[in-house]
Amino acid sequence: xxxxxxxQPGTSDCQILPVRYPSPEFDCIVDLWRRNSRWLGFMPTQGxxxxxxxxxxxxxxxxxxxxxYVLFDLPREVVKIIHLCVNAAHQGTGMARSLVDAVSERYxxxxxxxxxxxxxxxxxxxxxxxxFINIGERPGRSQxxxxxxxxxxxxxxxxxxxxxxxxDNLRVTAVIDFNVVRDILxxxxxxxLPSQHLLDDWITQLADICITDETYQEAGHLxxxxxxxxxxxxxxxxxxxxxxxxxxxxxxxxxxADLLPRAQGPDHRHLADTISGQxxxxxxxxxxxxxxxxxxxxxxxxxxxxxxxxxxxxxQLRSEDRYEPRQLNAxxxxxxxxxxxxxxxxxxxxxYAQSEPRRSLVxxxxxxxxxxxxxxxxxxxxxxxxxxxxxxxxxxxxxxxVNALRLASKxxxxxxxxxxxxxxxxxxxxxxxxxxxxxxxxxLAVSLERxxxxxxYLYKDNNWICNLNTGLISASSFFGHxxxxxxxxxxxxxxxxxxxxxxxxxxxxxxxxxxxxxxQLIDTRSAAGTLFGxxxxxxxxxxxxxxxxxxxxxxLAPPARILWYVSGATPYQTEGHIRAASQLREVRIGLPLTxxxxxxxxxxxxxxxxxxxxxxxxxVMALRFVGTELFDNPMSLSRIREVAESVGEKMPVLRSPxxxxxxxxxxxxKESSRYVK
Length: 677
What we know:
Blueprint: E1 14-18, H1 24-35, H2 37-40, H3 45-54, E2 57-62, E3 65-73, E4 78-86, H4 95-106, E5 112-118, E6 133-139, E7 147-154, E8 172-176, H5 178-184, H6 201-204, E9 207-211, H7 213-219, H8 225-234, E10 239-240, H9 247-259, H10 265-276, E11 281-283, H11 287-290, H12 293-300, E12 303-305, H13 307-318, E13 326-327, E14 334-336, H14 342-349, H15 358-370, E15 375-381, E16 387-396, E17 399-407, H16 414-431, E18 436-439, H17 446-454, E19 458-460, E20 463-467, E21 472-474, H18 475-479, H19 486-495, E22 500-502, E23 507-513, H20 515-521, H21 524-528, H22 536-540, E24 543-548, E25 560-566, E26 577-590, H23 592-599, H24 607-612, E27 620-636, H25 637-646, E28 658-660, H26 662-672
Parallel strand pairs: 4-5, 8-9, 8-11, 9-10, 11-12, 17-18, 21-22, 23-25
Antiparallel strand pairs: 1-2, 2-3, 3-4, 5-7, 6-7, 13-14, 14-15, 15-16, 16-17, 18-20, 19-20, 23-28, 24-27, 25-26, 26-27
């Protein structure tokens, strides 16, 4: 958190408003976060965008400029502040207090506002001034091992005084089995890795991880005195769930034994302790217990889960939107970012053809589920919820490492989905400002190798690498000489997408397209707002075809860039506008039926529409294009005229393809693309 001194009077012209995306305010907030990330911690750009959609990102504007922001979540009955940041020029003006007050006023129906702050951060002197009380401390799991202070500002619905965080009913109580305790203490090897994340900072902010008296009882059964004494000493770091072992408790043990006759006595007592102590979860690696979880839930309301499933449940509580399926490019195909059922995932994606051991993929999956803050899971499913493709990755420094990239081999859409996965991984890395994607999957299917190559990945040292570059740079500085051909530049723009190289011989054409065709070919967002969305084939394809008359094409030929001018209003634009950029791969001129049959899987036109687009001599032109970038800031017709005038260019004719000067293209791209800083 960034500190803010005592409030000073006279903070003038301050407005606190929800942030829109895209907007200059959003960009300023992301920049302010970057400059203060040492205090605020990691947050992907997508995280800011998600809060915009939920209206949980507020900006303080002074004279129209961003002076600070607050980013928060709304888990259950509280407001949970994630970031509170004030620009250095406005610290000491009471801006931080104003942001907290604004959040409080908006959510008076919630019990209060909660936040966690490292004990060694100076902001801990700030919170009492804003009405927060320190309700507890808990050990952090960062490398420094510093404490986290938990602060709470009540809205007066319940008692303000909560002596310890353990009594905070906003949290869940989870009892861990003895095998999980030993995992955490390092006694188990690879299979215990998920357990070792149960004391990560974000988990201990949501849950009390407890042991019971039965844990000490089981420790007493270890084979040597040294082992027993060592583990008893280590048990002191855990919270202890106090339970009276009275006659009622004994009756509960007997009831559990009748319900689970195959379980052992320690398991019956552990479960009785958990239920008597009002725990909501019992976390264990014992598959005999997890298989009977429905019985225990129906009888006692207790969730018996593995460490991996418990972590996933907590992550869903704090990031519920991430667990909702999303449409893939406005098609019936859906994207999920979590795994609900491990067995079906393994059945779909284990590479039997290359004799992949089951434990290999299970280990990758469980590690990813146990580390949701650093791992990323993508699952693509048909409208009938059948798995088609998946990717599991994690961030290592400035690289996104993909350790599982898979297709369900028998699905008819598999090859096309493979290219989508490769593109999605690249886009995820760009959103997180990483410099490369490295695919290290040892059991990669041959079809996926083709997809990686088609998407610009290069094979090197037994891995597939995609180096990421953004913005506009000169071709001579990139190649080290000035003799790069248009084909060279087009190839490198494909491999380093969304990089654009200037100063070479690659031409750019401004091509008009009607809004209805733009929705299906390039404009996912507009298509998502229509009743039927995009057709499945068009939506998942990474290549598309556009048909037009071959006349007045002004030398249109590949390789070239395309700027798409949508020649009318859409749900998001009131006039014609430049909506996207693509790379032109192929131009064909021929008879309508011949080209329709050749490209029907890539185009939006019907056979009738292809014939209608033909010139009087009966021929039509087909443009095959790839690498489409949808602009965050589409450039309107009126603005196009202004930009043309500013760079000394004649306004292009917008009824047919028009070649435009590179300076004109550069000005348009700088203003429209999210990838130019």
